[in-house]
Amino acid sequence: MATQPSAAPSTAEVTDRRHDGARLLRGAPIAAEIRGRLSGEVSSFTERHGFPPTLAVVLIGADAPSAVYLHQIVRSCRSTGVTGRVVEIGARVTTAVVRRRIQELNRDPLVSGIIVQMPLPRRIPLRAVIEVIDPRKDIDGLQPENAGLLTLGYEGFLPATAQAAVEIVKRSGYRLEGLDATVVGRSNVVGRPASLLLQREHCTVTMCHRRTRDLAGHVARADLVVVAAGSPGLITGAMLKPGVIVVDVGINVVADGIVGDVHFDSARQVAEAITPVPGGVGPLTNAILLEHLIAAARAQHDDHHTSAPPRPPAARAP
Ligand SMILES: NC(=O)c1ccc[n+]([C@@H]2O[C@H](COP(=O)([O-])OP(=O)(O)OC[C@H]3O[C@@H](n4cnc5c(N)ncnc54)[C@H](OP(=O)(O)O)[C@@H]3O)[C@@H](O)[C@H]2O)c1
User: Fold this and answer.
1) How many domains does the chain fold into?
2) In a domain, 58, yes or no
3) Is 185 part of any domain?
């Protein structure tokens, strides 16, 4: 059965229905709406405190998808008056040095948010790096305290990509309650938090990974498929239920450019709606990160001035 939007899209330009296929769920118009709202908040924060909210992006070594993403984040920061500070650390650095550098950023009062660009070089354990980020500056919600809050359904910073994957569907007018959702990928950065957020939206969630026996079967049953595997063309149109909503989080650099994890041309013939890559989840992720950064900056600084400091973006308890 086809999945129909429950209401008109919140922003008319969010989508662009192709006569020959699925409705395209684009992140940029939603991101522009968010950034427009944030610009005013950034100006008033800067006026109040004499410095703009600052995001520190820790980059360890060079990696093609990371470089694309980093470029987008810094551009997105500038467009709203936020300072984006790239903290480059050489690829040969030790884990101890990375941890020390993050601890310095934790102590820097001008820095309100810290993100660590992934993937890390193999010999640097992710956990050893993210666990030192101050939870109040962990605007990508990866630090164990924030991850625990998400799991329990309490307020805390949410992983921005996972939040964007859910928001792009909601903001396009689709009602998530009761849908069978299949999430392909179980990373702490995308798949796992996306599945938790979908449960909060009252979806029935199936999580798939490399050892899933019947990936095609789980995908075929889903009303909503979220794919975050890092495997180009993993999900094809032939695997999808007609009328499904497809959120492609994958970013893969291939000879022809950047593609997602979904075979776009075949999937769009079957789906009700699909996020393009590039242009889907990615731009919205950046805007959500900025939203988190400004919430973090206000929570860290405004509490000296107001009786009720803003909290990080909340996630509703189920
Ligand atoms: N749009 C954005 O803003 C954004 C942000 C972050 C990441 N990304 C992209 O999203 C993708 C996923 O990122 P990630 O950090 O979550 O990657 P990751 O840590 O490598 O995790 C990939 C997950 O996908 C599963 N998987 C991989 N190949 C599979 C297959 N053939 N069948 C079933 N499951 C498979 C893995 O299963 P196992 O657990 O069994 O290994 C794992 O759980 C990447 O392309 C990344 O570039 C996009």
Assistant:
1) 1
2) no
3) yes
